[in-house]
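Service request form, structural biology core

Requester: graduate student, group of Dr. S.
Request type: structure prediction, single chain
Budget code: on file
Notes: please return the result as structure tokens.

Sequence provided:
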Amino acid sequence: MIILVDGLNFFMRHYAANPSMTQNGDLAGGVVGFLKGIAGLSRQFKPDQIHVIWEGGGSLRRRAIYSDYKKGRKPKKFNRYYEDEIPDSNQNRLSQVAFLTKCLRNLPVYQHYIKYCEADDVVGYLARYEFVNQEVLIVSSDKDFYQLVNERVKIWSPGQKRLINEEVVLEKMLVKPSNVAVVRSFVGDSSDNIGGVKGAGFKTLAKRFPMLTTQERVNLDSIFTECNRLKEESKVRIYPDILENKDLIKRNFRLMCLDISNLAATQIQQIKGSLEINEKKYDKLSFLRSLHKFGLINFDPSTLFLQMNLLNGR
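Core staff response, request fulfilled:
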């Protein structure tokens, strides 16, 4: 099994919830939680490899398609209480991520960072085109990855503590995983500032277009054709509304689909190259020195070392 960790998503979960601090009083919950989480994943799933994929500064292609893409995102709130004032969280977050990436270089964990590329696209490419003959487990709470789920690719949701497979996607989203990106093109995504068609929701679309639930792959043109047919037979408003918003829906699909369409040829080569040069390493002494320098003297990495040593032997 290959584990693909959505790095920033996994980090932010712990950063917002873990109250750990360094001996200097700096927040360190993201680092501590992430390292414990990696050990837990190794223990629970016993993978052959763990790959951590980091955000590369956003997708230039998506911004070219829609300049307001992800505009106005709210910062992550802390899910904990401090008596003292919380220091500049943005600066602290960046310093924790920077330290974490250095730590992981001393562990048998692969890391990937592709400039001007979203982690989602790298994860999607690795799952669909590189590890095609292996079981893949994506670790993230991001529902964008639901479209990648099949008999070989699953998701582990840290928040739900649940394995997301084809049956779960169908249960939660009411459509086949292969049709999730299509349906989301109609629904939109407020978290990414992507507007949708008024009145279009997963429940409504599954009811009006049952082929989304029964067929493995439905394209946008099939939906538009159905709308043209059904608008003559029904007074339901969703059919003409969809036809009036065809350009919006097509744009949304380009934004939401996790495939090579949002990757440049040079970025694909960089992903392939990162797999070739990214040799896994296990240097316990250097790791301990880094922890001490960072000020994490109260963190016991013994469980992490045990799991990473087992992973290193694979």
